[in-house]
Amino acid sequence: MPGDYDIEYASPWAGATYLPSVLLRGPQYAEVNANPEYRRKELLLQNGIVVLGQSLNGWLDSTPKLESTSKVNPDSIGRFKHIEKRELPPGFEGGQSFTSVCINTAIYLPWLVSQCLKNGVIVKRHIFKHVAEAANVHFSGRKAHVVLNCTGLSAAKLGGVQDQGMMPARGQTVLVRNEADVMCSNSGTDDGDDEVCYTMQRAAGGGTLLGGSYQKGNWDSQIDPNLANRIMKRAVELCPALTGGKGVEYLSVIRHGVGLRPLRLGGPRIEKESINGVWIIHNYGHAGYGYQSSYGCSQAAIKLLEEALSIRPRL
Q: Residue 58 forms beta bridges with which residues?
């Protein structure tokens, strides 16, 4: 939960930016990507953790374009425009520029907990071997009618779920003090299919997160120093403003991080089922899109919750 730092809890390590992508599938994702209300809710938060900035996304000659304007609602992206090949560094086929957001997770996650507490949520820690056991620890002392399963990677081993489609997508990052007032990313690197390049500037003095990697099936919790060096080198080449054009040695490192994204083959699981007489609402497997899909997926889970309660036998 917020405040914890564990490799299998990827949220604190995330860049937490908004990049609408055709890679997001399902009605809950479509709602998030197309509905500007999602972004208004985020931008209007009165907690000083969200920053507006210019986001640049480019794709290399050797990789497919990540986005298509025909699949994006223009209302959901501010100041969107194409970047011509001649305006980009060598090796890039094209790119896009648009207004986006980036969340300082160190502030945002505790804020979410505070909103839960404000609304009367009782927070408890337990270890469960089976998902249905959670119904027996309701604060009222009575058995809960519904359990929401948001266990991420643990869905692979939790009894009653044991989703064999779950796997980690290891991400390694470098958090620096440098700021460039622009967020940059590209579609791949020359260093391998499981390495990526991005810079994400966090709000409220949170520094800039440099990434990264997307290593499927890799559970390694240790920092790879060679990968860290490649991450910093690529970031400075992509965004020279980070160091004022002075090179990678002028990056001021705060810390290195590793997190395991909860990747699910076939996409996130958002559905309900009855297990041992208890309705279970599943909402897990969001890989690297948990923050930007959070509102849409939560709304989908709430609809399932309402359905489950409506068909519960009334005694």
A: 95, 186
